[in-house]
Amino acid sequence: MIISILVAMNEELLIGVNNDLPWKLQDDLEHFKNYSLNKPIIMGRKTFESIGRPLPNRKNIVVSSSMKEQDGIKVFNNLNNAIAFSKKYNKENDIDEIILIGGAKVFAEGLKQTTKLVISWVDANSIKGDVYFPEFNKQEWREVDSKKFLKSEKNQYDFEIKEYLRK
């Protein structure tokens, strides 16, 4: 079973500002949608609130001690329970990947269990924010794929999507 992290960040590991993404990258949002379709996605409460609704055609799972379940959302009080549920769900539905989509706390807790990183490296290092991806050792990961996107009407900054597998 693959446990992935799907995230956009800059070289300073910035991932958020004021409960939102720090940039507008339409091609990255399309990649996020296509990559996560039909898979379970696990997120923290703040990430869910920033999205504002369950994402269609995915199993939406929220890690929160205060949030109640609602239509389209499964809620667990810790990440381990959310992952255990996702593994069972995947086995029943012949799915081979669980995706952690944020925020910082979910990433920090889940990084040890993660076997794949899908990172959109955004060329936007002057931006200030308030949420950061946890420090991680890049030597533990092997790059297996990459695709570059240039700044355009659809993308506020240049960025590159890279996939890594744990060595």
TrEMBL record:
Q: Which SUPFAM superfamilies match?
A: Dihydrofolate reductase-like (SSF53597)
Keywords from the UniProt entry: NADP, One-carbon metabolism, Oxidoreductase
Q: What pathway or pathways are given for this protein in its record?
A: Cofactor biosynthesis; tetrahydrofolate biosynthesis; 5,6,7,8-tetrahydrofolate from 7,8-dihydrofolate: step 1/1
One of its GO biological process terms is: one-carbon metabolic process
Recorded superkingdom: Bacteria
UniProt catalytic activity: (6S)-5,6,7,8-tetrahydrofolate + NADP(+) = 7,8-dihydrofolate + NADPH + H(+)
The record ties this protein, via Gene3D superfamilies, to: Dihydrofolate Reductase, subunit A
Coiled coil stretches, renumbered: none
* Ranges for domain DHFR: 2-166
Write out the GO cellular component annotations.
cytosol
EC number(s): the record gives 1.5.1.3
**What PROSITE patterns does the record tag this protein with?**
DHFR_1 (PS00075), DHFR_2 (PS51330)
Q: One Pfam family from the UniProt entry?
A: DHFR_1
* Gene Ontology MF annotations: dihydrofolate reductase activity; NADP binding
What is the recorded function of this protein according to its Swiss-Prot or TrEMBL entry? Answer: Key enzyme in folate metabolism. Catalyzes an essential reaction for de novo glycine and purine synthesis, and for DNA precursor synthesis.
Q: Which family does it belong to?
A: Belongs to the dihydrofolate reductase family.
Protein's name in the database: Dihydrofolate reductase
